[in-house]
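Write out the bound-state structure for uridine-5'-diphosphate-glucuronic acid.
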Amino acid sequence: MRLTVIGTGYLGATHAACMAELGHEVLGVDVDPEKIAALRAGRVPFYEPGLGELLVKHTESGRLRFTTSYEEAAAFGQVHFSCVGTPQRKGSDAADLTYVDTVIESLAPHLRGPALVVGKSTVPVGTADRLAARLAELAPAASAVELAWNPEFLREGFAVQDTLSPDRLVLGIRSAAAEARLREVYAPVIAAGTPVVTSDFPTAELVKTAANAFLATKISFINAMAELCETAGADVSVLAEAIGHDARIGNRFLRAGVGFGGGCLPKDIRAFAARAEELGTGRSLAFLREVDAINMRRRDRVVELARQLCGGSVHGHRVTVLGAAFKPDSDDIRDSPALNVAARLQLDGADVTVYDPKAMDSARKSYPLLGYALSAEEAVTRADVVLHLTEWREFAELDPHRLASLASHARIVDGRGTLDASRWAAAGWHVRVLGRPPAGVR
Ligand code: UGA
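---
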């Protein structure tokens, strides 16, 4: 089939390359000429394992092309996927739908023949109904153009795998023809056994926000337990393991630490709660405010531990932050707990040095006042306290003996609970792990 993918960020670039991999002819569309130039040259403008290879493979095979022209896109595509972002609106918790609206306003006037427009972005419930009406108003082909809603559940770092072998496909449709079209697009994925759930528009929209709300709640639940463990002298990692053996609870997404960040979970739970309030059912999602508050308190706790370890104030102390990305295997720093903590400590007068294996460029651009080192060893040299805030594998493999000889004071806060605390303590480090009793010699 001939598909277009509008918006070539994480979601769109991945979707475009994966649709080409499924055998379709794909045209990627973006208003940013620089992004389009990079993609045409086979360069992914962000770090996503496996995506670069797919992009090169299909730009070379000719199955994947890019353009900045909506007119060209409308003339080419039988199915148009809208993959633009829905960031948090400035001065509000609600989602900013400008980009989603712009896609319809820009594409629809060029649709002169039959086409299916498919929304993939995370949107407030009710958006698809509104966009369908607008599409019908603006498209010259009128009733030959239809909307469908097909939310995306990909995780950064696993984006290719999650697109080619998703846990499920959700098809929000209004006609059998739209369902048949989407089943044709995803035929190889469905043939591989992926479950398909069909629904109306509002359910499809809600599935996505509900899934992210559940995941955020799971993380905040275990982080609330971490707070209790810290007070009661208990160990949250053992607690998580023990409750996780109950298959109804499960042990995935139950890692306590400095909390969730990124371009999705934090803004999605806020937009979800804001939408419920707009609909007059604010009480149903009031708990998400608490989920958000627990999450933000974990960042406060790391700041507090850094202060304690520096004897009451970080002013004038050298603080090393290991990690800048919001999670490992990504260079995404949007709402990154690591950089949020780093910036707060810097404002408190600390001399902060950050190191991350992949996110240095974006961190430098957004936080130019922080110090940056080219390696973990360089970052730890002369540190008064080290904060481990993104659990890159590289950090778990560091040699604590060697680092103890480089630091001014061997004191570390493990904000992700993935370092071997007893090994670090044995190497002379005073170790504090979120949600666990203190360990170490000093
Ligand atoms: C999230 C969802 O997991 C995807 O299913 C969804 O499609 C995506 O948002 C989206 O809406 O587009 P992502 O933001 O890539 O994906 O990252 P996650 O793997 O969910 O991690 C989110 C945050 O939670 C990270 O900061 C991570 O460090 C943190 N986390 C995760 C924990 O603190 N504990 C855990 O046990 C798991």
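---
DSSP finds 19 helices and 14 strands in the chain.
The pocket of uridine-5'-diphosphate-glucuronic acid is lined by residues 122, 153-156, 212, 215, 219, 253-255, 257, 259-262, 264-265, 268, 326-327 (CB under 6 Å).
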